[in-house]
Design a protein that fits this description.
binds guanosine-5'-triphosphate, 4-stranded antiparallel β-sheet, Alpha-Beta Plaits, 7 helices, phosphoprotein, alpha+beta, binds magnesium ion, 4 strands
Amino acid sequence: MSERTLILVKPDAVRRGLTGEVIRRIEAKGFAITRLEQRHISRDIAEQHYAEHADKPFYAGLVDFITSGPLVAMIVEGEGAVAGMRQLMGATNPLEAAPGSIRGDYATSIGENLVHGSDSIDNGEREIGLFFPDA
Ligand SMILES: Nc1nc2c(ncn2[C@@H]2O[C@H](COP(=O)(O)OP(=O)(O)OP(=O)(O)O)[C@@H](O)[C@H]2O)c(=O)[nH]1
Ligand SMILES: [Mg+2]
């Protein structure tokens, strides 16, 4: 069954010129990118996006980072897209992410781990509503 997930190419990946590499891997896997836009998000959107982490010690740094420059937001669709994109991304901590995954191949820092992908179908729909309200 086709699913939708919100993918963010985070500001570190945009700064490092890795946007194309992330898009290439998504397309090579066979998922469809049905919306795509580069934008610099407000603190308000960032805080809503990461609301589940509001009580964590890293929350303020996370909001600072995700608003530190432009990101590329995408809706990615396909069978098993939520879990499939999490596999392509690799573990949250890039030092634990498998080689061959985006984080495993290109990152070392848990705070700057290149990509975001929704962690469930319900969260995907909530996040898509935040970034692409008309989708
Ligand atoms: N500094 C720090 N950052 C963390 C830690 N845990 C999570 N984060 C950051 O917070 C983000 C959100 O955490 P999670 O939602 O648990 O991880 P995730 O789903 O793999 O990452 P996202 O796709 O960005 O949501 C992560 O991508 C990390 O950048 C931590 O222990 N320390
Ligand atoms: Mg998450």
